[in-house]
Amino acid sequence: MDSTKKKINKDSVMRRVQETVNPTQKLPDFGSGDTITVHYKIKEGNKERVQAFRGVVIQKKGRGQTATFTVRKTTAGIGIERIFPVSSPFIDSIDINKHGKVRRARIYYFRNLSGKKAKIKERRVFAKKD
Questions:
Q1: 3-class secondary structure per residue, the chain
Q2: pLDDT at site 17
Q3: Is the pTM of this model over 0.90?
Q4: Whether the predicted pLDDT of 6 surpasses 90
Q5: CB 49 within 8 A of CB 41
Q6: Which of 50, 107, 112, 113 shows its CA 20 to 30 Å from the CA of 59?
């Protein structure tokens, strides 16, 4: 090994990455079981449009810039899942439609349910007083 090479400090590299990849928007606080609408930008040629994807959050994974969340919806009896990176520049906004009451952080069992069994109870959320 050449002793003239600098040792790279992992913390300083991570700090530099955090500074350069700073998310422009603050995401709302949501979790598994919540029904959300994700508005994301789609580029088609030289045009850009915003499309909405409404579904139930199945999981949140990771932390920091590499965190992702999975949203599942059913269209015409076919389940569709989409994984969104939290720091994606294509996410325009996220709206929370309902807060669901579930006992697990990852609700993969939701994939096998249909009809009334696929219904998630709504959790009451009280507004914070300032």
A1: CCCCCCCCCHHHHHHHHHHHCCCCCCCCCCCCCCEEEEEEEEEECCEEEEEEEEEEEEEEECCHHHCEEEEEEEECCEEEEEEEECCCCCEEEEEEEECECCCCCCCHHHHHCCHHHHCCCECCCCCCCC
A2: 67
A3: no
A4: no
A5: yes
A6: 50
